[in-house]
Amino acid sequence: MGNDSYNYIISDENAGKRIDKYISEIHDEVSRTYIQKLISDGNITVNDKQIKSNYKLSCNDSVNVTIPELTEPDILAEDIPLDILYEDDDLIVVNKPKQMVVHPAKGHYSGTLVNALIYHCRDNLSGINGVLRPGIVHRIDSDTTGALVVCKNDFTHNMIAQQLKVHSITRKYVAIVYNVIKEDDGTVNAKIGRSPVDRLKMAANVANGKEAVTHYHVLKRFKNFTYIECTLETGRTHQIRVHMASIGHPILGDQVYGPARCPYKLTGQTLHAKVLGFIHPRTGEYMEFEAPLPEYFKHLLNILN
Predict the structure, then answer these.
(1) Which residues of the chain have pLDDT under 50?
(2) Strands (E), 240-280
(3) Which residue, 72, 169, 253, 265, has fewest beta-carbon neighbours within 10 Å?
(4) What is the pLDDT of residues 207-236, one digit of tens each?
(5) Residues 128 and 135 sit within 8 Å (Cβ to Cβ)
(6) Which member of 20, 61, 90, 141 is catalytic?
């Protein structure tokens, strides 16, 4: 493969543009963050001089761009079965099972979704920020099941990430929560950030937290529990778990934000990413996918009935 090099002479219409914006328009398959890294590393120069990412171009500037060969990730490809809801040349939508971590991290170097994707995709992987890997644009907790989109190339990654940024992606979850919710519909609008008491937890209404909005709708009421559907406006870490706990309805099985003792034998929270919808980056068409409820979830609903 090797490095790819390009040279551009700036015309009148592009004069005045920031260098990082100009390059992102030409190379839309490369993320803006990676372009800024290329600039800081000296791989993008103007008139043979190193510049900063806020440099504004002038007419007849000579821009040289070198995109280094993608580095291989230090992640083992593993033949782990995937429940694929949809796949094409640009993306994959998978139904993630319980107890599967999305991306390798400390304590989880194998058995993750990315280990499985690297095996499944072979050489058809995206190169986000210079690392050859599947484009993970959003995650769900290891004990949360359901639909997750994974991007195969940078173009798709950037387009899906943009949809996430403007909250245009449809994300609906179902959950069983403690106690009976009286109203049929409600909204939790509370900033989420690191808990000042326990840094391993997230918390609602934190001073320096990020905006977070969750809409919920009651599907069914039981004696001591409620089956709900949650629609996300934002996608903060542990958002549904934190928001529902903050209004007195923690998710059944959630040992982090709920009661220490669970009345049923469960592995983690009863939370499932049921519906995922987005505009396909290549075709421009809206697509929506539904991940079927896992067996343990259906069994629990039958018991509660």
Answers:
(1) 1, 132
(2) 271-279
(3) 265
(4) 889 999 999 999 999 999 999 999 999 989
(5) yes
(6) 141
